[in-house]
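Field log, afternoon session.

UNIT: design team B
ACTIVITY: writing a sequence onto a fixed backbone
BACKBONE:
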């Protein structure tokens, strides 16, 4: 069997839609994707990490046609993890490493983001993210509260 032919010049995909990097854009955290045993790629000639839990955010950004994603991150609230430093601290009130927090409480949160280009010009990542209105207050139940930012 052969793979279907793909017209890369005319395809519609979020990887083709670049986000402005010189100003904040607004949107919402539409979804959070999880993988229990994510297979990590080797980075610059190093051995890949063993498979483990990973997470990535899905954003709907105002003025853009397609959803945009973060890269896969280790699903950890360690004080130096990218998930904790780039997302939990700026979006969750009184965030502390290893806190008891259900990440799904961030779904639907309105945010403003500053994106930057990575070394490979096809890829971008979030440099800064802040809540548009209020930080999420961690709660033990199903619903979350917000506190003014």
């Amino acid at each position: 069997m052969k793979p279907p032919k793909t017209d890369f010049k005319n395809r519609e995909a979020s990887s083709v839609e670049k986000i402005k990097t010189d100003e904040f854009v607004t949107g919402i955290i539409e979804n959070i994707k999880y993988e229990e045993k994510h297979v990590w790629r080797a980075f610059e000639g190093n051995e890949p990490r063993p498979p483990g839990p990973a997470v990535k955010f899905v954003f709907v950004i105002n003025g853009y046609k397609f959803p945009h994603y973060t890269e896969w991150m280790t699903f950890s609230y360690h004080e130096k993890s990218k998930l904790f430093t780039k997302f939990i601290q700026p979006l969750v009130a009184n965030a502390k490493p290893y806190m008891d927090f259900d990440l799904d409480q961030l779904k639907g949160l309105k945010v403003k983001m500053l994106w930057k280009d990575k070394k490979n010009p096809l890829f971008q990542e979030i440099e800064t993210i802040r809540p548009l209105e209020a930080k999420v207050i961690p709660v033990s139940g199903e619903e979350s509260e917000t506190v003014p930012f």
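LOG NOTE: Residues 25-148 form one domain.
NEXT ACTIVITY: expression trials, pending approval
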